[in-house]
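Researcher: Here's the sequence for the chain we discussed earlier.
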Amino acid sequence: MEKYFDLLLQNSLFHGISRKELSGLLHCLSARTVSFSKGAPVFLEGDPAGSIGFVLEGAVEIVHDDFYGNRSLMMVAQAGELFGEAFACAKADTMPVSGYALRDCKILWLECRKMLTVCSNACGFHNTLVKNLLQVVAYKSLLLSSKIRVMSRKTTREKLMAYLLEQAKLQGSPEFTIPLSRQALADYLGVERSAMSAELSKLRSDGALETKGSWFRLSTDV
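Model: Thanks. This is the structure I predict for it:
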């Protein structure tokens, strides 16, 4: 487990916690690691919602399927990122979404209930952990607001450009890569992949952007 300590300490949840404290913290939170093969469910809608996941290796896509089986991509958690913290903190009984391994991955599960209560050992890091967890949840709320702004656009073209402009702003450059495949991007935007591909072709023809796979370069003249 120690080989992942540097990765863990880079996450906002563990800011202010020393490497020496980390072993005791993980023990206190009943941490356990589970490996998943590509495409396997990491958790499913309806599963208990008491744990927070930390991606040690690989990536996990968080999705929601409606009554008719239409899938919406909520987020992709890459190595070094958390997922499930909002549902665990809200004390939801079950998960309202599902998670699948985008590629072979290893997940560290942490018991949220033990983060939010002082343990019998009176560990000094609990207050720091609770403060950090609040900041993580608040940041994820801001990301959700960003998605709502994108999804509120009326047309596929407007949604696509809103997302790409947001990525360019976040990465500070008109040239950037996105963490989503084309199908995942269509799922994230809530549009048909064929319609999105057609709009990308039009945008290339109009000189608004260049793209190959997950790489994009937006025109600075548009």
